[in-house]
Write a structure and sequence with these properties.
Keywords: Heme, Iron, Membrane, Metal-binding, Signal, Transmembrane, Transmembrane helix. It holds the Pfam family Cytochrom_C. InterPro entries: Cyt_c-like_dom, Cyt_c-like_dom_sf, Multihaem_cyt_sf. This is Cytochrome c3 family protein. By secondary structure, this protein is mainly alpha-helical. The chain folds into four domains: about 1-15 and about 175-260, no CATH class; about 45-165, Cytochrome c-like domain (Cytochrome Bc1 Complex, Chain D, domain 2, Orthogonal Bundle), CATH 1.10.760; about 280-410, no CATH class; about 420-450, no CATH class. The protein is built from 20 helices and two strands. The chain has a two-stranded antiparallel sheet with strand order 1-2.
Length: about 450
């Protein structure tokens, strides 16, 4: 019997080691999943909204296709869910390969030719224009299709980590799976410990019966109170050490997660003083982002539009047809802020600013220039702000972490051809190739803004 007891003790130790390794491996895998999700958002390309981009294919280099897909397609498409465009899983069953190639290279040309499928798809997605990709060769498209095919055939868990969902929904989906897995491991450990305790009690009972059978008098031990048992257990160094180790692991995991997510506000969606719908203005009415955020193309800040920009339209547009002849309550808030009388169309002397709540907020140590990204790099607003044209209420789409930005800078192509911003840099590289001396002045080192910022 003593050997049986020792056996179960060894099982308990092994169970503890296996459980610890399982939890550690799971936490490591979850961190990699989160990192891949952030990387997928960072490498979102310049595909426009509104149409299926690729189809599954059996031939091609999936690895090369994945790089192209992340660069050009992920801003509007994902494998297993709709973003701006539809989900791409199973697209090969819905579209012909030759048709897809034409659509990817120039969807507008296909629509202009009167192709019924192209026209139907264009109208179905609110006539949002997909960016043409004439630079992609047939081999490039084959590689993209192979990548889509490979991703679509992955298990649900793997596919779930490849895409990026909108805002907080993304984190919630993956985190839900993670919590269930971790909870299952914890329940398994607790059940195993309970079984071990029951078996130990059974062993003690069998030992007592065996001794009684051999004629050995076994003294009955009075049942101990809970306090006595707890004090005796507290004197057990192995148990105390095990409990301390579990506590350290738990607190370390909670602390690490809290520190890792400090300052990350992905999914943040505050309630604004006026319920401005980007879905209506940018989506349905197709108002260009820079009509309101006019600073994005020429300055560091995109700028918050002043109320008089709203009045360019709402001086006449009151949405009264939806409110029994009365001005929309949200438009009335603009009038109140401007101290504007819609009847006499005059402004009073007591205007008040609209107190918008900032959503995207970088730390002071980070410098971000909108004009450099919008005008120089030609990056679309959706690559950082997500499908803004479909948001009734804006939320923070991207994590905006340093890792997210760095990954984008590592994978994004620099389009310097015909771009005056890079002309001087290209000229300097040509001089270096010829062995000509390059001074800081040539690199713009005597510009005022270099020192007087």
């Amino acid at each position: 019997m003593r050997s049986i007891s020792l056996f179960f003790r060894s099982v308990a130790k092994s169970l503890f080691l296996v459980s610890s390794l399982s939890i550690g491996i799971h936490a490591y895998a979850q961190n990699n999943t989160d990192a891949n999700a952030a990387a997928g958002q960072a490498t979102s390309g310049s595909a426009a909204a509104g149409a299926p981009v690729v189809a599954a294919a059996t031939a091609g280099d999936a690895g090369a296709g994945g790089a192209i897909f992340k660069q050009k397609c992920t801003s509007c498409h994902a494998i297993d869910r709709a973003v701006v465009g539809p989900a791409l899983k199973g697209i090969s069953e819905r579209r012909d390969r030759e048709w897809l190639t034409k659509w990817i290279k120039n969807s507008q040309a296909l629509i202009a030719s009167g192709d019924p499928e192209a026209v139907k798809l264009f109208n179905e997605y609110n006539k949002l224009v997909m960016t043409p990709f004439p630079e992609l060769s047939d081999d490039d498209i084959s590689n993209i299709l192979a990548f889509i095919d490979a991703e679509a055939n992955k298990p649900a868990e793997a596919a779930g980590g490849a895409g990026t969902a909108e805002g907080g929904a993304e984190g919630g989906s993956e985190q839900g799976v993670s919590d269930w897995m971790l909870g299952g491991i914890i329940v398994l450990v607790l059940v195993a410990l309970f079984v071990i305790l029951v078996l130990n009690r059974v062993i003690k009972t069998l030992e007592r019966l065996l001794l009684q059978k051999q004629g050995v008098v076994v003294e009955e031990v009075e049942s101990e109170s809970t306090a006595v048992r707890f004090r005796r257990l507290a004197k057990n160094k192995k148990f105390v050490g095990f409990a301390v180790l579990l506590l350290v692991i738990f607190l370390g995991s909670v602390g690490w997660k809290a520190m890792w997510e400090t300052g990350v506000h992905q999914g943040y969606q505050p309630e604004q003083p006026i319920k401005y719908s980007h879905e209506l203005h940018a989506g349905t009415l197709k108002i260009d982002c820079q009509y309101c955020h006019f600073g994005a193309y020429k300055s560091k800040n995109a700028s918050i539009p002043s109320a008089n920009v709203c009045m360019n339209c709402h001086n006449y547009v009151t949405a009264s047809d939806k409110y029994n002849g009365e001005t929309s309550p949200e438009i009335a808030k603009i009038y109140k802020a401007l101290d504007y009388d819609p009847q006499s169309k005059t402004y009073g002397d007591n205007p008040k600013p609209i107190q918008w709540i900032r959503i995207h907020n970088l730390p002071d140590l980070a410098y971000f220039n909108h004009s450099q990204h919008v005008t120089v790099a030609g990056i679309k607003c959706q690559e950082c702000h997500g499908p803004i044209q479909g948001m009734k209420e804006v939320y923070q789409y991207a994590p905006l972490t340093m890792k997210w930005c760095i990954n984008c800078h590592k994978t994004k192509d620099v389009n310097y051809k015909g771009n005056a911003y890079y002309d001087k840099i290209v000229a300097v590289h040509d001089q270096l190739k010829k062995g000509v001396q390059v001074t800081p002045a040539i690199l713009g080192g005597i510009e005022c803004g270099k020192c007087h910022y």
